[in-house]
Structure formats: structure tokens, C-alpha cells
């Protein structure tokens, strides 16, 4: 079992925009009054294409698929929220809080993922959307997975339900470590991957966003699984998406920690030194428009593809 993969899927946006429906539970989004809709899309597309090119340059296999024109899916650049793949052969699809985001679950994307990963089991959790009292679990936004130790870290929120989480854990054999963490307005933070990242030998975590009653539990689990804990601050989390990182590897087996340029520039020399000790490469990408209007960063743009072992 491995924590990292060298193959990823990214969705090229055609109608990227601020989504007011998603913004109801995502205080990281900003409506940008100084740009037209066309300008927002054009800038986001440039940021996307540059990110793909830089990842490929470092030896990551990037599969790209283009969102259909006029699809009404302004958040499609964030595919990690609606599916995940697993080295045991499972493909999981997830219940999404935003109705507009449910149209991102396209058959052609699923078929491409199944082929690339040789998945032989599809675990469909979107039935939770149709319950009398719907609940949600938004993929590896809601879940930060320690794949080696089979631990699912989850900050409970309107987008991250304990009921759906337990269903995921029962199906895939994970243990859940749950906690409450708070966003910039004191709300429950919308996605776990905004405030933490788990790599093969380390974890980046904004412990000061976590409810005091839950901090020791989270710290003990991370430390007990052998991770060096690298703490980041609330300010780095809220203002610069510093928790929204992802560790990948390239075809040579070198470890790459991917983050946005804003996240990288917010880190202290000491934090960078610790991160460099665990990674051969720190790749930081300018995605300012995607971060501001979309309320997500580079980790959200990357769906990891794990081939069945």
C-alpha cells in the first residue's frame, strides 16, 4: 500500500466562475467584481494549463479531460470532491451538497478512471443526496486519507456527514478520526483538506483551527501513525490555502509536494526546511483566480489515480 501516486486526473474548465450556491458553505470564495465572466474563465484556464505543464515537467502523468461547453458546472476544475480511486480496486463516487456540482459526475470521466485504474468495484454513495434528510461527503475534500494506515481524517461540517463517513469507512475498511475545525468566520470549516495534508512520512496541519477538545485526539493519531507533524497557522490557512497541499511522486519515485504559489510564499523558512526534508521537490503553482473565485486550491484540482495492485 502506498500513500502517493504518479498518475492524476485534472478537468480543464470551460465555464469556471464564482458559484453562489457553493459559497453558502464556503467562506473562502470571493465574487470578483472587477472581472467579467469571460475574463475569470480565461485566467483560470491559463492557470490550469500552466499547472498541468509544470506537473508533467516534473514527471507526473497527468490525464486531462475537458468539461463540456455550457455544462453549468462552474466548479468542475475540482474533481477530487466527487470521486476517489483506491489501490484495492474501488472507485468511489460521493454525495455533493451543491446541486450544480452533481452534474460533474459524468459517465465518460468515470469510464476513463475505471480504465486507468483497472477498478473492478464502484461504490456509489450519492444515494445519500436522495434521503429524506440528505447528507453529504465530498470526496478527498471532506476526507484526508492516510492510505497506508487506513485512517480517514474528517472535519465535520455541512459537507462532511458522520453518517456518510461511517458508510465509507465500513465499505473500504478505514478508521475515522473526526473533529471540528473552524473557518475565518467561526463557521465549521467546509473541507478537511483546507486545513491539513497527510504525506507518506509527514502531516501538515493547522491545529489552531481545530476545536480545543479535539486537538489532542488529532495530534495523537497523526503522531501515532509515525508522521512528523508540521504545524501551520490559521492565517496561513485562511488567507493563503497553506493546508491545501498534496504529495505526489514522479515516474522516478521522487516525492513532490504540490501547493499554490500563495501557500508557498506564506510559509516560514523553518516550515519549508521541514517540508524539504520529506520531499525531493516542492512545486508551487500560481492559481490566484481559481483560489479566489473558486474557494479551493491546487489539491482540490487534482484527483489521484491509484491503479489496482
TrEMBL record:
Signal peptide: none annotated. Coiled coil: none annotated. It comes from the Bacteria. This is Amidinotransferase. InterPro entries: Amdntrnsf_FN0238 (IPR014541).
Amino acid at each position: 500500500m502506498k500513500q502517493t501516486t504518479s498518475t492524476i486526473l485534472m478537468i480543464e474548465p470551460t465555464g469556471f466562475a464564482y458559484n453562489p450556491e457553493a459559497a453558502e458553505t464556503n467562506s473562502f470564495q470571493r465574487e470578483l467584481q472587477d472581472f467579467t465572466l469571460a475574463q475569470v474563465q480565461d485566467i483560470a484556464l491559463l492557470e490550469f494549463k500552466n499547472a498541468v505543464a509544470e506537473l508533467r515537467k516534473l514527471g507526473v502523468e497527468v490525464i486531462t479531460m475537458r468539461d463540456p461547453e455550457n455544462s453549468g458546472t462552474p466548479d468542475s476544475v475540482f474533481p477530487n470532491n466527487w470521486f476517489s480511486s483506491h489501490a484495492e480496486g474501488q472507485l468511489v463516487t460521493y454525495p455533493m451538497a451543491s446541486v450544480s456540482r452533481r452534474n460533474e459526475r459524468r459517465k465518460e470521466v468515470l469510464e476513463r478512471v475505471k480504465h486507468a485504474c483497472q477498478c473492478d468495484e464502484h461504490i456509489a454513495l450519492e444515494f445519500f443526496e436522495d434521503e429524506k434528510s440528505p447528507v453529504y461527503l465530498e470526496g478527498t475534500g471532506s476526507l484526508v486519507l492516510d492510505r497506508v494506515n487506513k485512517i480517514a481524517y474528517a472535519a465535520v461540517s455541512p459537507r462532511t456527514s458522520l453518517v456518510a463517513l461511517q458508510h465509507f469507512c465500513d465499505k473500504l475498511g478505514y478508521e475515522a478520526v473526526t473533529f471540528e475545525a473552524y473557518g475565518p468566520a467561526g463557521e465549521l470549516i467546509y473541507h478537511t483538506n483546507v486545513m491539513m495534508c497527510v504525506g507518506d512520512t509527514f502531516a501538515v496541519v493547522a491545529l489552531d483551527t481545530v476545536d480545543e477538545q479535539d486537538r489532542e485526539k488529532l495530534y495523537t493519531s497523526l503522531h501515532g501513525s509515525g508522521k512528523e507533524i508540521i504545524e501551520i497557522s490559521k492565517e496561513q490557512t485562511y488567507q493563503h490555502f497553506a493546508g491545501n497541499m498534496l504529495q505526489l511522486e514522479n515516474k522516478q519515485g521522487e516525492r513532490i509536494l504540490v501547493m499554490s504559489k500563495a501557500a508557498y510564499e506564506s510559509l516560514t523558512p523553518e516550515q519549508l526546511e521541514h517540508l524539504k526534508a520529506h520531499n525531493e521537490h516542492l512545486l508551487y503553482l500560481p492559481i490566484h483566480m481559481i483560489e479566489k473565485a473558486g474557494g479551493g486550491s491546487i489539491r482540490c484540482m487534482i484527483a489521484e489515480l491509484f491503479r489496482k495492485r
